[in-house]
Amino acid sequence: MQKWIFSGVLVIACVFAIVLMFTLPGKEQVAEQEKPTMPEVTMDATAAEATIKAQSCISCHGDQLQGGVGPNLQKIGSQLSAEEIYTIVTKGKGGMPSFKDKLKSEEIANVAQWLAAKK
After folding, report:
1. Do residue 9 and residue 51 come from a single domain?
2. Hey, how many other C-beta atoms are within 10 angstroms of the C-beta on 89?
3. Neighbours of 88 (CB within 10 A)
4. d(Cα 83, Cα 37) in Å, to the nearest integer?
5. What are the two backbone dihedrals, phi and then psi, of residue 70, each rounded to the nearest 5 degrees?
6. N or C: more exposed end of the chain, with fewer CB within 10 A?
7. What mean pLDDT comes out for the span 34-58?
8. Which residues does heme c bind (predicted)?
9. What's the mean pLDDT in 4-27?
C-alpha cells in the first residue's frame, strides 16, 4: 500500500515538474522584463511636455523640473541615457511609480528622449 502511495506522489511530482518547465519564463523573457526595449520614435518636445503635464509628473518633479519630492530633471540627460530614463519611467524606481500601464511605450520613449536631451 505504501509503495502505491509513494509511486503516486512521485508521478504527481514529475508531472508538476514537467508543467513548470514549460510554463516558467525563460532567461530571455526575464531579461526583457528587467530591461524593456525602447521603441524608435522621433522626439516631439511639445508632445513630451504635454505628456509630463497630463501625467502629473510636475507634482513630484516641479513645474520647471527643478525637483521636489522627486529628483531634479533639468540636466538629467548628462547623467542618464534615453534608454536608462525609458527603463525608469516604464518600470518605476524607488518612490517613482511605473508608467507602463498608463502610457504607451512610444509616449514613454518620447519623454525619455526629451529628458535625455536636457544636459
Report:
1. no
2. 26
3. 19
4. 8
5. -95, 170
6. N
7. 89
8. 57, 60-61, 96
9. 83
Domain containing 14 equals 2-27
Rounded to 5 degrees, φ, ψ at 83 are -65, -40
Measured distance CA(73)–CA(13) in Å, rounded: 52
Q: Residues annotated as binding site?
A: 57, 60-61, 96
The owner of cell 514613454 is 108
Alpha-carbon gap, residue 108 to 52, rounded angstroms: 10
- Of the candidates 102, 74, 79, the one whose C-alpha atom is nearest the C-alpha of residue 90 is 102
Gyration radius of the chain's alpha carbons: 22
Per-residue pLDDT band for 33 (boundaries 50, 70, 90) equals low
Given a contact cutoff of 8 angstroms between Cβ atoms, the answer to whether 97 and 90 are in contact is: no
- Separation in Å, CA 36 to CA 28, 40, 88, 89, 108: 11, 13, 10, 10, 11
Annotated binding site for heme c: 57, 60-61, 96
